[in-house]
Design brief:
Layout (H helix, E strand, L loop, with lengths): L2 H11 L13 H4 L7 H7 L2 H13 L5 H17 L4 E6 L7 E6 L1 E4 L2 E4 L3 H5 E2 L19 E5 L6 E3 L2 E10 L8 H19 L9 E15 H5 L2 H6 L24 H16 L4 E6 L5 E6 L2 E2 H21 L2 E4 L13 E9 L12 H20 L1 H7 L3 H4 L14 E2 L2 H12 L11 H5 L20 E3 L4 E3 L9 H27 L4 H15 L12 H10 L7 H5 L5 H9 L5 H54 L3 H36 L4 H12 L1 H16 L10 H5 L3
Parallel strand pairs: 1-8, 15-16
Antiparallel strand pairs: 1-2, 3-4, 5-6, 6-8, 7-8, 9-11, 9-12, 9-13, 9-14, 10-11, 14-17, 16-17
Helix pairs in contact: 4-5, 7-17, 10-11, 12-17, 12-18, 15-18, 17-18, 22-23, 22-24, 22-25, 23-24, 23-25
Bound molecules: adenosine-5'-diphosphate and magnesium ion.
Length: 723
């Protein structure tokens, strides 16, 4: 009866480990061998052209046609040597994944077969892209967009294809992707941070935002995955009763990794390393079946690209191991969800991490400046940060008692809290001759090594962790470029404001250091309410946050509204990160994405409930009816009662399911008729989605009642415990 489930289970029990072919050499010998890095470029392209590429990376200036031809020729020669046959522009439309359109190097010229790749093909392409989300920017008569080379992220070879990272814009130059705004925000934070660094060290001429994303994911066996239409269609299980043993024993975390999984990890890591992705740590996560991979941090744009590429590689390698990777934020109800902690910091051209405390008081003023400005940015733009991580998937995770709440707050730890409190107390300070200025300013006390401090808070959505901030509320499936664009922009905006205020005091004759501390103190006082050191998962925090006036926006359609608030528009337009049209379009696309996701969930729920669950429940009920009749036939009327109770119980659940599926479908129809995308999303969130829970409750109850041999869907205990 439940043919697919048992066939899948049979397959799982017969699984053998797959042969893996790992590089014999040391990592340092094969790391980045499939990347056209600047070093590789130097071997294939004239030094003049390489110089022009480097200068274009630094300044963002356009690359001229001659240079482009030279680079293209070198790139082609290298790629063909490595066995590439095709090339593609690799870009990030406003969907969950990357896009590519492959062209062959092969061409015919006067009847002769040649391998062709010109500078023009490197620099710009026109993918037939009318089906990518565009929020109405590209009406059909101008349904063309183009991709343009991003020389700051090196080309690489996947399989037999040379992939060239690009931005994706409309013909009227509006951005239609995640990369273009990210690049703008990186230039912005560079300029603002460098300007502020000028107070401290004139040799600082460039500041780079760094990112290290810790990627969480689940693995399930391929056969079981294929037997769960909800996993296949929606990436998450819409039904499934909690297993007798979940994560309560906490024995999965840092436990030994199952051999099959270990093989998979070794293989995808080797592939990633060849592509220059510096993967470093791997371990089990809290939930059964959940794992994490984290790279060493890199420049933010490159790191975002690498995260997308890594997920692509993981998907491909998993297939060879008969596994399937789930990147959804909440594949299993009642089990921890998956996040992607975005570790973020700022690094100078002198190699100094601006968020790293130091033993030298003078350097600590730099540290404090960037720490406090980041806290101020989060305080002023908490709503926008919330918006930047909003997605249908993340809604299932945020605030689900194991993930950061939807309330944005900052954790900095006890030691730094003490430092800020000290700073606050010190009032306006006069520095007299012979004074130890830094002592008087109260900034000699910052402990040098905060990294190993024990008061790490795992429940904060935005935590300082020794030498970087960790934006923990980001969803596992998200493109980090979106939260990073917002973070870079708001910190840059705050730094510019900070500089203005400090300069004003200096102009009035205040000593530079004193002016800096004065403004920092103002910020510390003004932003107190955003700092929270307690348990972010607790009920008390929700109440406390409300008292403090912090927002707690629980659902995506409402959180997204902040993208187009007057404050956000002013911010993005001022700094030219988005135009008004781009913002409006993006907003619409995000609301539509939400609708599509919830719509798919709803359809899958309706389909599974009516076509899989109810027929199964009815079959089982019929068996029970036979049983009750039989018992009565042989005179066991009293004994038949127990069976009849179960029959009634089943009927009750069937009635709930049938009724709620119908009501849900009605609500979906009503929501679909709403013209405005934002209102439609809200209707989906508020009218359609509540039925997911009531239907699920009844289905999960049936799972406990119905004969296990008849149940059609692989159960949680079967999905979650990989061997
Ligand atoms: P954990 O947070 O689990 O204790 P680590 O401290 O090793 O682990 O760091 C986690 C992630 O933070 C890694 O991806 C690491 O590369 C990244 N990270 C460390 N330093 C920085 C930095 N300066 N900027 C950005 N990311 C960083
Ligand atoms: Mg971490």
């Amino acid at each position: 009866m439940s043919y697919l489930r048992f066939k899948a289970l049979e397959k799982v029990s017969g699984r053998q480990r797959v042969e893996i072919d790992l590089p014999k050499a040391k990592i340092s010998e094969y790391f980045g061998t499939l990347v056209f890095s600047l070093d590789t470029m130097k071997k294939y392209v004239s030094s003049g052209a390489v110089k022009r590429v480097i200068s274009s990376i630094d300044t963002g200036e356009k690359i001229d046609a001659i240079t482009a031809d030279a680079v293209a020729a070198g790139m082609k020669a290298w790629a063909i040597e490595k066995g590439a046959i095709h090339y593609t522009h690799w870009f990030q439309p406003l969907t969950d994944s990357t896009a590519e359109k492959h062209d062959s190097f092969f061409d015919l010229e006067e009847g002769r077969a040649i391998e062709k790749f010109k500078g023009s093909a490197l620099v710009q392409q026109e993918p037939d892209a009318s089906s990518f989300p565009n929020g109405g920017i590209r009406s059909t008569f101008e349904a063309r967009g183009y991709t343009a080379w991003d020389p700051s992220s090196p080309a690489f070879i996947m399989g037999q294809t040379l992939c060239i990272p690009t931005i994706f814009v409309s013909y009227t130059s509006e951005s239609l992707d995640y990369k273009a705004p990210l690049l703008k925000s990186l230039t912005l934070i560079d300029q603002a941070a460098t300007a502020v660094c000028d107070y401290f060290d004139k040799d600082i001429t460039k500041v780079t935002a760094t990112l290290g994303p810790e990627q969480e994911y689940f693995l399930v066996d391929e056969a079981l995955y294929n037997a769960r239409p909800d996993l296949v269609m929606a990436g998450r299980t819409v039904f499934g009763h909690a297993p007798a043993r979940g994560q309560q024993l906490e024995d999965h975390y840092f436990g030994s990794i199952p051999p099959r999984v270990h093989d998979f990890m070794m293989e995808f890591e080797a592939e990633a390393l060849k592509l220059g992705i510096p993967v470093r740590t791997r371990h089990n996560e809290v939930a059964p079946g959940q794992f994490e991979v984290a790279p060493t941090f890199e420049e933010c744009n490159l790191s975002c690209d690498h995260n997308l590429l890594l997920r692509d590689i993981m998907n491909k390698v998993a297939e060879r191991h008969h596994l399937h990777v789930l990147f959804h934020e909440k594949p299993f109800s009642g089990i921890n969800g998956s996040g992607k902690h975005n570790n973020w910091s700022l690094m100078t051209n002198l190699g100094k991490n601006l968020l790293s405390p130091s033993s030298k008081p003078k350097e600590n003023l730099v540290f404090l400046t960037f720490l406090v400005n980041t806290v101020k940015a989060v305080h002023d733009y908490a709503d926008l940060l919330r918006a930047s991580i909003a997605s249908a998937g993340n809604d299932y995770r945020l605030g689900a008692n194991e993930a950061p709440p939807a309330i944005i707050s900052v954790f900095i730890g006890k030691q730094l809290t003490d430092v800020l409190e000290e700073l606050e107390k010190n009032g306006n300070i006069r520095i007299d001759k012979g004074d130890n200025m830094y002592m008087k300013l109260g900034i000699t006390k910052i402990p040098e090594l905060l990294l190993d401090n024990t008061d790490r808070n795992r429940t904060s959505p935005f935590a300082f962790t020794g030498n970087k901030f960790e934006f923990r509320a980001v969803g596992s499936e998200a493109n980090s470029a979106s939260p990073m664009t917002v973070l870079n922009t708001i910190v840059a905006d705050t730094l510019w404001q900070f500089k203005k205020e400090v300069d004003k005091q200096i102009d009035k004759g205040e000593k530079k250091e004193v002016a800096i501390v004065n403004v920092l103190r103002d910020y510390v006082i003004a932003t107190k309410k955003i700092r929270f050191e307690g348990n972010g998962y607790s009920e008390e925090w929700v109440k406390e946050a409300a008292k403090r006036g912090l927002q707690n926006v629980k659902t995506t359609p409402h959180a997204l509204d902040f993208w187009i608030s007057p404050k956000a528009k002013k911010l993005f337009l001022n700094h030219e990160i988005f135009s008004e049209r781009e913002l409006e379009a993006r907003y619409e696309i995000m609301q539509e994405n939400y609708v599509k996701k919830v719509q798919i969930d709803g359809r899958v729920i309706g389909d599974l409930a009516m076509n899989h669950i109810i027929p199964t429940a009815v079959s089982y009920q019929n068996k029970l009816i036979e049983n009750a009749k039989g018992l009565k036939d042989i005179g066991l009327d009293k004994e038949a009662k127990a069976t009849i109770e179960i029959i009634k119980e089943i009927s009750k659940h069937i009635a709930t399911i049938t009724q709620d599926v119908e009501l849900m479908t009605e609500e979906r129809k009503k929501a679909n008729a709403i013209e405005n995308a934002s209102d439609r999303a809200k209707a989906y969130g508020e009218k359609v989605k509540p039925y997911f829970d009531t239907i699920r409750y009844a289905v999960d109850k049936l799972e406990l009642i119905v004969d296990d041999a008849m149940w059609p869907l692989p159960k949680y205990r079967e999905l979650l415990f990989l061997k």
